[in-house]
Amino acid sequence: MTGIExxxxxxxxxxRERLGSTGIGMGIGIPHGRLPGLDMLYGIFARLDRPVxxxxxxxxxVDLLFLLLAPESAGADHLKALARVSRLLRDRTVCEKLRxxxxxxxxxxxxxxxxxxxxx
Length: 120
What we know:
Layout: H1 6-19, E1 23-25, E2 28-29, E3 32-35, E4 42-52, E5 62-71, H2 76-89, H3 92-100, H4 104-112
Parallel strand pairs: 2-5, 3-5
Antiparallel strand pairs: 1-2, 4-5
């Protein structure tokens, strides 16, 4: 997909996690990093059948992951994408729906067609 070796991606993500966990709480992790050789942003969503330890701020395991990979030169675009993903996944209603469907089209729609529910 990205043309970058998996080990290179892994190393960048581990380096970022050493700065502090990207587990934002409520079972959500947003691992991210910048990589040389990328020409665009990549986002990959995964819902895990079994939550994994993630050293999240609330010490809860993570079952929703959104991996964000950005070109090394992305600058503000990387931060804007990270903020947007974070806002989306902090919406409890969206997370309930992400956890409640196995339909790929429904998952995709939830991730791209988001209108805040303002639910807490």
